[in-house]
């Protein structure tokens, strides 16, 4: 487990450009996403934190899809060291879970570095101008959904959609460290 509270990107910073392959075989760039708001989330298949939050992330994406909020998940883990995070297994997992959003592979790990991602899951909410509005935990209890009292990502989305400043704009993220390639 890692708990990260120092971030490379700050509120107001622009989303770094990317061009990555999705599990559907398509290539996606930042410009591929037309929704006014975009949640970019660093993700993987094997992390227990990801697995615990997975159903809630799917539900959030489905709830906000028609309200102008898109979601994209990016897996930057070293698939050689963690075969469960291979593209083949990403395809299988996304299909089994019926992901309602693109799931992209960052094999070179350059995009994870550009965004300053260090753990999975690591959600970031960007506004219509693709500037960062929020990054932090999804909610306050990954293990027990019934005990959740703070829905940080959902609150940030609601504040942004209402035209309000997102407060707080940063919260530490908790998850599994990104599995960097040797020498990366």
From TrEMBL:
One Pfam short name: AhpC-TSA
Keywords: Isomerase
Keyword Transferase: no
Keyword Isomerase annotated: yes
Coiled coil: none
InterPro entries: AhpC/TSA, PRX-like1, Thioredoxin-like_sf, Thioredoxin_domain
UniProt xrefs under PROSITE patterns: THIOREDOXIN_2
Molecular function terms, GO-annotated: antioxidant activity; isomerase activity; oxidoreductase activity
Segment forming the signal sequence: none
Domain Thioredoxin: 9-162
Protein name: Thiol-disulfide isomerase or thioredoxin
Native source organism of the sequence: mine drainage metagenome
